[in-house]
Amino acid sequence: MCSKTQTKTTSSSSPPASFAGQMICLSVVTCVLAVWCKFTFVDESTYPPLAPLHSAKTPLALTTLYLLSIPLLKTFKLSNPKSLLLPSMLLYNLFQVTLNIYTVALILHSLKNGHPLIGSTTSPLCSTAIWIHYTNKYLEFLDTTFMLLRQRHDQVSFLHVYHHFTITWAWYFGVLLWAGGDSYFGALLNSGIHVMMYGYYAMTLLGMKCPWKRYLTVAQLMQFVSVVLFTVGCVYYNWRRLEGRHFMAMGIQVGEMGSLFFLFSKFYKKSYTKKIKGTDDLPIDECQNAIQEGVENNMYVDQCAQAVKEGVVGINEVGGVVYSRLEGKERVLKGAVKKNSWSMVG
To answer: Residue 251 to residues 19, 54, 87, 127, 179: CA-CA distances in angstroms?
Structure first.
């Protein structure tokens, strides 16, 4: 017979992050964004929307710094990451929700006011929204930063890094080669999904349940397919008006969506259909701790102990009921475990 163990939490000796320090960091980020917007802003009245910082040197420098920062940040160990990062993460996720809602609204407003749904190569009405979406790809590097500072190194997978690195380049070429017309579609879908995704992250940080979290990866897969199909439609409707730069932009888009669909499908198959392995040698408190860790750390539960001889019900909030033994009757549900998609920023 197993007994539940009581664990006492000890308060950390490190002081919480000061308000002044957080405001300084916010001010630095704001200044950097102000400089970026000054030199790269895309005005709908100008087309093509070329600006000084749209040369290849900019994404080359920033994506290289992104890759180099990953091993460096892995060496950082915060003594009290929760108190230090929670306010910043919440603010960041709420900002992303707001920015992506604004991008979606801007595109829908342009469609309402004359931007063709499909079949345009030159309409500049969505150029500003596409520029905002492109700029946000650099801000999304903070997803990786927060993961590493939280010591969630397993979340910074090949898929995660590949996604952030390549999608930035894909949208750079999108702005450079075809920032108007039909290129709005990918930004519209991706911004809509990011509203759901960052909304889910914010709700998780606030301790709220999110009804759509299990559908995020499926929505991302549908996005990739939809963009490819829309691109085929663009070729059909614009065939006589397309130039070499348009074909190059579409080729990059299709290649990016195809590679992400392949990698996300592998992730989905591995993470969402992994069977739970029951074991008999773990006490109930360890099993519950493993489940809670899986929920908090966005990891699927590799092993789950069977319930103790007394009637116990274990719940994995990510994947539903993991095991149940009531009144001495064993019932193990070996369904798929639903993994949180924190590392699936897309």
So the answer is: 47, 20, 41, 20, 15
| Domain extent at residue 311 | 277-332
Look up residue 107 and give its two tokens: 């595109």
Alpha-carbon distances, residue 255 vs 8, 34, 72 (angstroms): 52, 32, 30
Q: What is the pLDDT along the chain (346 residues), one digit of tens a residue?
A: 444 444 444 444 444 445 555 566 666 666 666 666 655 655 544 544 545 446 788 889 899 999 999 999 998 887 777 777 888 899 899 999 999 999 999 999 999 988 888 878 777 778 888 888 998 999 999 999 999 988 888 889 999 999 999 999 999 998 888 877 888 999 999 999 999 999 999 998 898 888 887 788 889 999 999 999 999 998 888 888 888 888 998 999 999 999 999 999 988 887 765 544 443 444 555 555 554 554 444 443 333 444 333 334 443 333 333 334 333 333 333 333 333 333 333 3
Active site residues: 163
Nearest to 298 by CA among 330, 345, 334: 345
Look at the chain and report how many structural domains it folds into. 2
Q: Is residue 10 part of a domain?
A: no
pTM (2 d.p.): 0.69
For residues 260 and 290, state if they share a domain.
no
